[in-house]
Amino acid sequence: MRVGLVQLTSTADRARNLEAAEKGIVAAARDGARLIVLPEMFNVLGDADALRAGAEPLDGPSLTWASEQARQRGVWLVAGSILERLDGETRLFNTCRVFDPKGQPRATYRKIHLFDCDVPGARFHESDTVKPGREIVAFEADGVKMGLSICFDLRFPELFRSLAVEGARVIALPSAFTERTGRDHWETLVRARAIENQVFVLAANQVGASTPSLRWFGRSAIVDPWGVILAQAPDREGPIVADLDFAEQDRIRALLPTLPNRRPDVYRETIRS
Question: Annotated active-site positions, please?
């Protein structure tokens, strides 16, 4: 399967962001990508006021646009994430939705782990406006089981292991990983999640500056189950593509059978808290 990621520098300008995303989708589809992943907050990204103002329901303009993009290009589209507004909820959800090549929704994942961080240069409290999701989500695309995660989820290996144990061969990771933490942690964590679970990780990141104080690391990457980076984005907007070799994944899993050799009977009790 040939896959693509679209790296963006999203701002508070929805129209501008969707135009840039469309260019990336078109380019990746022309290069043969069957499945394309957009970054976290692909539609609107900025300060807290901009994020609240840009929140939408699932049938709002951004995901309606994403559905049409999937249909027009004939691709699976992992629509990064948007801030989702639900009737009766005072807080929002950080939500990823997947569309099939006919533009039909096939999976909806609400970010489980929220980015509350006070590291200098990366101060952000997502839980001030966002409510965490409670469901681990996978879907099947062209016969391949794929898992969903969003950005800060990367730091929680339990989620990735749960998806792998459930049979996921690929895990999508739409992200807006900060420049400050990304320079030390992004590549290490993305490759670690791929290696320890023997999955392909599709890590689509934001890049550059959305505001003077919000800077993103970029370096979107497609990583194979051995931890090899198959494609990595330069420090600008645009798409990357790579081929996922599932026969090679099977070979790696047979050569180094870490998933079957797990011992949940020994450590289940120790990881409950």
Answer: 40, 111, 151
Q: What is the pTM of this model?
A: 0.95
Task: Report yes or no: 250 and 225 within 8 Å, Cβ to Cβ.
Answer: no
pLDDT tens digits, 244-270:
999 999 999 999 999 999 998 888 655
- List the CATH number of the domain containing 115: 3.60.110.10
Sign of CA dihedral 27, 32, 34, 36: negative
pLDDT tens-digit map of 169-212: 999 999 999 999 999 999 999 999 999 999 999 999 999 999 88
Listed in order, strand segments (DSSP E) in 229-273 are: 229-232, 238-243
Number of domains the chain is built from = 1
Q: Give ∠ CA 105-30-205 in degrees, rounded to 5.
A: 60
> Which residues constitute the domain of residue 15?
2-271
